[in-house]
Amino acid sequence: MQLAIAAGVAVLATGLFLAPLSEQLDDQAMRRALAIAQTTAAQPQVAEDLSETRPSRGGPVQTEAERIRKATGAEYIVIMDKHGVRWSHANPAEIGKVVSTDPSDALAGRDVMEIDDGTLGRSARGKVPLRGENGRIVGAVSVGIEYDSVRDRLVRAIPGLFAYAGGALAVGALAAYLISRRVQRQTRDLAFSDISALLAEREAMLHSIREGVVALDRNGRIRLLNDEAQRLLTLGPEAIGAPLDEALGEGRTTDVLAGRVTGTDLLTVRGQRVLVANRMPTDDGGAVATLRDRTELERLGRELDSTRGLIDALRAKDHEHANHLHTLLGLLELEMYDDAVDFVGETVGAHRATAEQLTEKLHDPLVAALLVGKVAVAAERGVSLRVSDDTRLPDRLIDPQGLVTIVGNLVDNALDAAVGSAQACVEVVLRADVRSVELRVRDSGPGVPPEKRELIFTEGWSTKEPPAHGKRGIGLALVRRLAERQGGTARAGESPGGGAEFTVVLPEALTEPDLSHAEEPR
Questions:
Q1: Which of 111, 242, 406, 473 lies in the 20 to 30 Å Cα band around 251?
Q2: SS3 assignment for 271-300
Q3: Domain boundary, last residue among 106, 123, 153
Q4: Pairing relationship of beta strands 137-146 and 425-432 according to DSSP bridges
Q5: Is 328 in the same domain as 471?
Q6: Could you please report the per-residue DSSP string of 358-411?
Q7: How does pLDDT run across 177-233, given as a tens digit for each residue?
Q8: Contact at 8 Å (CB) between 410 and 441?
Q9: In contact, 402 and 274? CB cutoff 8 Å
Q10: C-alpha–C-alpha distance, residues 383 and 423, integer Å
Q11: Residue 152: pLDDT band by 50, 70, 90 thresholds?
Q12: Is there a single domain that holds both residue 229 and residue 345?
């Protein structure tokens, strides 16, 4: 295709050059003939000889005209009187005869340039008036340039022109070949139809997958948004080409997509949606980010965690209820009916009071249910699990499943550490600010030495023997990973009572409070 274009351009350029060249050569020949005629007419002796002599083959007019013709290379120089009779001619036999072309314009005092046919054939002519000493017109001078010589100049110019056109075509062909090779390398030798098909498949795939895809260029501008990304980020197609900061505004979502926050499976919030983002840089300085909607899994996660909590609680209650039934059966067999009634009332009241106290402090049902179950598990293991009076948690958690995982892992580790210690106890403190949540879990165990307070968050590190069904050392690592994904921190320290204290801070764990539905003060 490129070679055909180069050849077409060369042919077109050659034709466009040749078209005016013939006219230019004709014009040059006519102007040359006119100049020779003007030079001849400007000699006073010619006009004087024309007035004083007769037309003859050896006359002074013929002699002078032939001298000038031979010197200039003209085809003929005809000097005529006022009646159009020739006094000179290249063919002496024509002297004394009337000219074959109309001399009226020249005899009227006008210069004439033309291409015309005469006795010697087709020629480029120039005619001028011949004036005497007083300026009166006494005749005219007609000079002809052989037309074949003009055509010969044109023909002689064509080979050189074709040589230049051929050279230009050769350069164009070489450039076309080099460009073609480069394009083939860049497109991996794919045909245009293959590239078009790949592009169509890419567009169909990007817009059909249920995962948001955002592509950025090296300047941080959005260059691609598939349908799912537009839905998750509440953006329209007009956002393509806009800077990321301008399209999304300030916030954690923008920082994550721009790469200012690094990591994998980073949690971020856009509107009412909790998103999991991953970002991969590209070779051209841009990046591609993927987004998954975490909110769609929230209901299933709540149900799964509730089921797990229920199973743990039922397992703990199984032994506790068996002991209570045995005690109640003994009181009835001893006919101590009043004591049996009191025992039943105390047992039921204690459990009801614990549940009510937790739900008053923890308005998120998932976290409250978890701690109710953990209280029962702790009681079975001989550990007192308390929730601090300072605990307050509203029902505005962005990621309740993540907080349940953090609380569950820390409480389980605390129970393991507190078992067997004097006055075994575990205390949980949950405080909420406008957007942040702070969690503290203290235990009465042996504590964590200062040199190991960072090591314990390493995945695979544990002080316990690995169980047969799995591996240990992932609980605290998971706690820190979940905290960092939400932009928070997790650290270990020393409890005021001498055991360990784990503190987790989540700066953006809560949604903005809805003032129109704010709870009335109790």
A1: 406
A2: CCEEEEEEEEECCCCCEEEEEEECHHHHHH
A3: 153
A4: unpaired
A5: yes
A6: HHHHB--HHHHHHHHHHHHHHHHTT-EEEE-TT--B-S-BS-HHHHHHHHHHHH
A7: 888 888 888 777 777 777 778 888 877 787 778 889 999 999 999 998 998 899 889
A8: yes
A9: no
A10: 8
A11: low
A12: no
| Domains of the chain: total | 3
| pLDDT reported for residue 503 | 94
* Strands 425-432 vs 384-387: parallel, antiparallel or unpaired: parallel
Answer yes or no: do 287 and 359 share one domain: no
Q: Supply 80's token pair.
A: 């005529």
pLDDT one-digit tens code per residue, 413-447:
899 899 888 889 999 999 998 889 999 999 999 88
Residues 353 and 490 in one domain: yes
Q: What is the DSSP letter of 510?
A: B
User: pLDDT tens digits for 49-80?
Assistant: 888 888 888 889 999 999 998 998 888 899 99
pLDDT at 154 over 50: yes
313 φ, ψ (degrees, to nearest 5): -65, -40
Do 349 and 485 share a domain, yes or no?
Answer: yes
**pLDDT for res 519:** 46
Same domain, 339 and 434: yes
Same domain, 110 and 80: yes
Q: What is the CATH number of the domain that holds 391?
A: 3.30.565.10
Distance CA 224, CA 213 (A): 8
Domain that holds residue 132: 2-153
Of the residues 261, 293, 325, the one at which a domain ends? 293
Packing angle of the helix pair 365-380, 337-361 (nearest 10 deg): 140
Contact 193, 231 (CB under 8 A): no
pLDDT score of 204: 78
Compute, in degrees rounded to 10, the torsion defined by CA atoms 163, 164, 165, 171. 110
Q: Are residues 335 and 447 in the same domain?
A: yes
Per-residue pLDDT averaged across 476-504, rounded?
87
CATH of the domain at 73: 3.30.450.20
Tell me the C-alpha distance between 45 and 41, whole Å: 9
Confidence of residue 297 (pLDDT cuts 50, 70, 90): low
21 vs 187: CA distance, rounded Å: 45
